[in-house]
Amino acid sequence: MAAIISENLKFFSLFFKSRDVMIFNGLVALGTVGSQELFSVVAFHCPCSPGQNYMYGLAAIGVPALVLFLIGIMLNNHTWNLVAECRKRALKNCSAPATFLLFGSILGRAIVAPVTWSVISLLRGEAYVCARSEFLNPSAFQDFPLGYGPDSMARFSCRDTPTALIPFKDEVIRRLKYESQFLGWIMIAVIASTAFLLKCLQHCCSPLSFHQEAYWRQYRYAEKDLFNRTAEVHAKVLAANNVKQFFGFVALDKDEKEIVSQYPVDEAQPSPQWQEITGVYLYRENKGFPLYSRLHKWAKKLTGNGMDPDGREMALLAV
Questions:
Q1: How high is the mean pLDDT in each 10-residue block of the chain (319 residues)?
Q2: d(CA 33, CA 26)
Q3: Which of 31, 125, 229, 253 would be 180's cystine partner, CB 3.0–4.6 Å?
Q4: Where are the transmembrane segments (predicted)?
Q5: Under a CB-based contact definition with an 8 Å cutoff, are residues 94 and 102 in contact?
Q6: Domain ends where: 205, 225, 248?
Q7: What is the spatial distance between Cα 240 and Cα 261, in angstroms, rounded to a whole number?
Q8: Which domain holds residue 132?
Q9: Which residues contact 48 (CB under 8 A, 6 or more apart)?
Q10: What is residue 313's three-state secondary structure?
């Protein structure tokens, strides 16, 4: 039984590692849905005034989406790798299509949350009803009372709707929610179609076989995990050595003492090495052999763009 459980855990671990982008995007979408629900219940209050309704409704949909988009850009490691690449190398090793696709990779990850926010807002319809109510044409409703203009129409989304207009309130809100949800479903269809086409384009344009691309994903994950864990240990040991040199001793717990004794560290890596392994990296080959990362390329003692005349370049990133 223990062996079966262990094998199942390994399977799920490998599955989640191989689907980390999809799972991350799903969690971001779920978190955005929860935030949108909370915002609608706690913070959304239509002003019920001509001019203000429209601006408030657009702000309720657009401003959180913009903030989520900027947060997505800032939290993406590719963003800062691209900044480092521009600052140090001016993207001179990247072709125009590769640069375009690198931006697309960053934007594709960043738009998950804002698109989810906008879609859920449209499907709920509250912000759209608030924004559009003042622009309704009273003559579009049968037996609508005369003498009511934008001031009254703007109050359909609020509780203080004029008494004479209450019989029309359900129909007005139903029409506006129909428009809002229709736009939301259209947006979902467009985004799903675009994602499908881009995924097809990625696999059609990839110079790698399916299994090699899967291996590349596994390598990137393993290298990132090992690099981060090793960097943490290296930094701790180097810091311990420097503190001991300053004070004459260093206060370490049992586990830290074992780490310091097991992994001797003399000096930090020189800056040129950090520059070599920092920045955007596209899949390249050198004399037929793959170079899976900047660290891999540095370990092979290669300089320049690391490509032979018949080399290949892959810019469609999956991480």
A1: 46 45 66 68 76 87 90 85 74 67 80 88 88 79 71 75 75 88 94 87 79 89 94 94 93 91 88 84 81 90 58 46
A2: 11
A3: 125
A4: 21-42, 54-75, 96-117
A5: yes
A6: 205
A7: 11
A8: 20-205
A9: 154, 155, 157, 158, 160
A10: strand
